[in-house]
Automatic annotation (TrEMBL):
Gene3D superfamilies: Cytochrome P450 (1.10.630.10). InterPro entries: Cyt_P450_sf (IPR036396). GO terms for cellular component: membrane. Belongs to the cytochrome P450 family. It is found in: Membrane. This is Cytochrome P450. It comes from the Eukaryota. GO terms for molecular function: heme binding; iron ion binding; monooxygenase activity; oxidoreductase activity, acting on paired donors, with incorporation or reduction of molecular oxygen. Its cofactor is heme. The chain crosses the membrane at residues 6-25. It comes from Mikania micrantha. Its main location: membrane. SUPFAM superfamilies: Cytochrome P450 (SSF48264). Keywords: Heme, Iron, Membrane, Metal-binding, Monooxygenase, Oxidoreductase, Transmembrane, Transmembrane helix.
Length: 196
């Protein structure tokens, strides 16, 4: 009987000392310095806070948690950085320069397609279809050059699954198009257009 008491006492001393050492080392270890975050629900994260109008919901969250805060989009951790117009002064020139250069790139691609169409090229891709629609006078709604640029930017472009870059997939739409010209992959994630 005495042996059982000594074993139980030894086990309890070991258990208490282990728990104390864990608590001591856990409190002294450096925690990552993460931005503040609202309460997240399992599986959906903070998606319930972003409905119905995401940009207004993000603004309300920035008023409560500051201009930089952490949100979970489903199970994907993300950092939101929202600044007022006064806070954009330092970035204004760079943003305008990036927008101008990007616009020139898309304009050059459209001009190349227009020149290849004049040479009666039989290759048809998405941009050629958009240019056909824009030139069609019988259309009820006219597409402008800016509409075509915006339409190109609304997709996440990636190389096709075949690995030899012969096709381009547009995420979320389920369209696979044969590649007619050199592949231009541009990842765009804008909640609002960049101001001019």
């Amino acid at each position: 009987m005495s042996d059982i008491h000594s074993y139980v006492l030894s086990f309890l001393i070991w258990l208490i000392s282990t728990l104390l050492l864990r608590a001591l080392f856990k409190s002294t270890s450096a925690k990552p310095c993460l931005p503040p975050s609202p309460f997240a629900l399992p599986i959906i994260g903070h998606l319930h806070l972003l409905a119905p109008i995401p940009h207004q919901a993000l603004h309300k969250l920035s008023l409560r948690y500051g201009p930089v805060f952490r949100i979970l989009l489903g199970s994907v951790p993300s950092v939101a950085a929202l600044f007022t117009r006064n806070g954009k002064r330092g970035f204004g020139k760079r943003l305008k320069d990036i927008r101008r250069r990007f616009d020139e790139l898309i304009e050059r691609i459209i001009k190349e397609h227009e020149e290849s169409r004049k040479q009666n090229s039989e290759k048809m891709d998405l941009l050629n279809i958009l240019l056909d629609v824009a030139q069609d006078e019988s259309m009820e709604i006219k597409l402008t050059r800016e509409n075509n640029k915006s339409f190109i930017l609304c997709f996440d472009w990636k190389a096709g699954e075949d690995g030899n870059l012969t096709s381009v997939d547009m995420e979320g739409v389920g369209i696979t198009l044969p590649r007619a010209n050199h592949l231009v992959c541009i990842h765009v994630a804008l909640l609002e257009p960049i101001p001019v």
